[in-house]
Write a structure and sequence with these properties.
Distance between the termini: 41 Å
Structural class: mainly alpha
Strand order of the largest sheet: 1-2
Strand content: under 5%
Shape: globular
Oligomer: single chain
Order of helices and strands: HHHEHE
Length: 138
């Protein structure tokens, strides 16, 4: 069996680019050292800072309070993915809404990060990023 490795981000600087499906558009943020510029790296600094805070929580405070969460994925994994996908501002508001839902009288179950930001959400109306009630509501 031949295994064909495909990149999620096309890279013109590697041979693996030949295996990429050209019918799909490239991802918004490139992690490839050949494709990303120093400006892209600087724009991602706030996002990296937010993810570093979540990493710090996971490795310091979380073992002390226990590994229990009412949702899948856990709240820290949700926050990490939301910040990676939508940036520090929108991802933090989504994470705050998730943390406020995670209480004894709140929701439980599978609650994934949305694939797209809510249509009505704007940077100056940040509360619209969060899902304040329900799990995976449309």
């Amino acid at each position: 069996m031949a295994y064909k490795q495909q990149l999620t981000v096309p890279c013109a600087g590697t041979v693996q680019d030949l295996a990429h499906d050209r019918s799909k558009p490239p991802m918004k943020h490139s992690a490839c050292e050949h494709c990303s510029s120093p400006v892209d790296g600087a724009r991602r600094l706030p996002r990296r800072f937010g993810r570093a805070l979540i990493w710090l929580y996971r490795h310091t405070l979380s073992p002390l309070v226990g590994y229990n969460c009412r949702h899948l994925p856990t709240c820290s994994a949700y926050g990490d993915e939301a910040i990676e996908r939508f940036g520090l501002w929108a991802g933090s508001w989504m994470t705050l809404a998730r943390l406020l839902r995670c209480n004894p009288f709140g929701t439980s179950g599978i609650d994934n990060v949305p694939l797209t930001a809510p249509q009505r959400a704007r940077w100056y109306l940040p509360w619209r990023y969060g899902r304040w009630r329900g799990v995976n509501a449309s």
